Amino acid sequence: MTKKTSVKKAAKSDVSTQTVENNLDGITLAGVLMACADGELEESEIGVLAEVMSNILQELGVELTEEAFVSKVEASLDQLTGKELPEMLALIAGNISNREVGQVALAVAGAVMVSDEEYDDQSEGPLYVALGEALGFSSDESVAILNALVEDAE
Hints:
It is a single chain. The chain is mainly alpha-helical. The protein has one domain: TerB-like. The protein contains 9 helices and no strands. The longest helix has 17 residues, at 43-59. It starts with 6 loop residues before the first helix and ends with a helix. The relative contact order is 0.21.
């Protein structure tokens, strides 16, 4: 039995369910961006991503049907498609209301990144740090959130 990664614990956040729901577009965009870090997101991976993110967000009190979440993931993909990285990061940051929610978005992105147990330090690491910087975190703060996720899952 694998231990569940606690996004709430890693983000050191007691953000309310309502706040998460109000920022769900930005949080979903962050997760989708990380899922695409190693290339394009295949159609078959959308359901898996939706399941991973749905489980993470349930911990934060957000309840969505699988169909609704797949739809949200697909909408995020549409929003990110064709954009350069700075534009993607600005889009995500523009959909995050405050630092506390930014911590949650970064923790969700990190959880998505480690969910496949394959880490590509050439694409995923720099992208994760860039996302953190776009959300107002230093690279050390971003890495601390990721380390908390990894330690919690061990």
